[in-house]
Amino acid sequence: MFHLLGGLPHQVLRDLAKKYGPIMHLQLGEVSLVVVTSPDMAKQVLKTHDLAFASRPKLLAAEILFYNGTDIVFSPYGDYWR
């Protein structure tokens, strides 16, 4: 994405936020991202929808290299993670 748009990633995201608003949905290949660029919106999103954003994606490499994805970085949100 950044190679297509040119510039540094944080500058590209700033410019996209100016054009499309403080909350954006980006599809980078198979990865779906939600980008929040406003501190006030980030506080609101993380306060009301914290559980939706707390889990990590399930990756095959994480399962192979990091104890079946149960380490602190790749563990899904739940009792084990807490």
Automatic annotation (TrEMBL):
**UniProt keyword Membrane, yes or no:** yes
Q: Which UniProt keywords apply?
A: Heme, Iron, Membrane, Metal-binding, Monooxygenase, Oxidoreductase, Transmembrane, Transmembrane helix
Q: Name one Pfam family in it.
A: p450
User: What GO molecular-function term can you cite, just one?
Assistant: monooxygenase activity
Compartments (UniProt record): Membrane
Q: What PANTHER family would the database entry show?
A: CYTOCHROME P450 FAMILY 71 PROTEIN, PREMNASPIRODIENE OXYGENASE-LIKE
Q: What is this protein called?
A: Cytochrome P450
